[in-house]
Amino acid sequence: MPVIQHADYQAPFWLPEGHLQTIYPSVFRKVDGINYVRERISTHDGDFLDLDFSKIQSLNHSVTPPLVVLSHGLEGDSSRQYITGMVKLFNANGFDCLAWNFRSCSGEINQTKRFYHSGATDDLDFVIKHAISKGYQKIYLVGFSLGGNLTLKFLGEKGQNLYPEVQKAVTFSVPLHLSSSSKTIGWLYTKRFNKSLIKKIQEKSQRYPEFQLNTSNISKIKTLKDFDDCYTSQLHGFKNAEDYYERNSSLYFLDKIAIHTLIINAQNDPFLSKDCFPFEKAKHLEKVHFQAPEMGGHCGFYQADYQGVLWSEKRALEWVMS
Question: Which of the two ends of the chain, N or C, has the fewest CB atoms closer than 10 A to its terminal CB?
């Protein structure tokens, strides 16, 4: 995985550090002009996934455009600015886009006992196969944070057996090592994520009492690891949070990836531990490139110089088209 030493990202002077570079675009950036068409597909286990397509107006209807499949972060969805900004730029450059929503993230609670998690690659696999069935012959993957971990783990699991339609991938702000990152993320972000996650547990418990979800320990959940110990691990077949983290950290799957893939993690990302910056490991892998700008925050990379286009979006397009 060659390490790309040079990164030309420069944060605005009024966003001097990682927390501001994370929060500002998340709260204040607006992306207009995206008109999704939603498609709901049924999964093999009796659940559903909501896929949001943004397609270009092609003059040649006999030619299928390339497709970008976008995977959002923890408790995100297809409407997040880091997704819609990427969709807008890729649409403008001739790509259809498919922003899929993880189970329970599309505005409606999902129908099975399980939810989604950092390593639930079966759903991404199902989405990609659905895209292939629609006739897409060139597919590119873009993942953010949890969705980036999911994307990298998927590619590593598939290895040389990856669908030939999948050409390249690029990921941003990836917690490559889940255990240490769960301890790194600050209380403000943790409180926000846990509030949203717990609300979904409570809603599912009320709507589907037959699942017998235990909500008695909710008041004791203070950290993401607490939530993963009580719910993520137990609902998805892991012993505990550490077992879940160890078996799903994409760091352990990078050496099996068989297509050109770019990982971009900002060094001031408040979500990421030092284990998410594998500079030494990077030197010995062939297909995966690693880039670590000094600034950028978490899913941030805000830069006003590009007429509303983030540095990360420009970098992703450059990678895919190179």
Answer: C
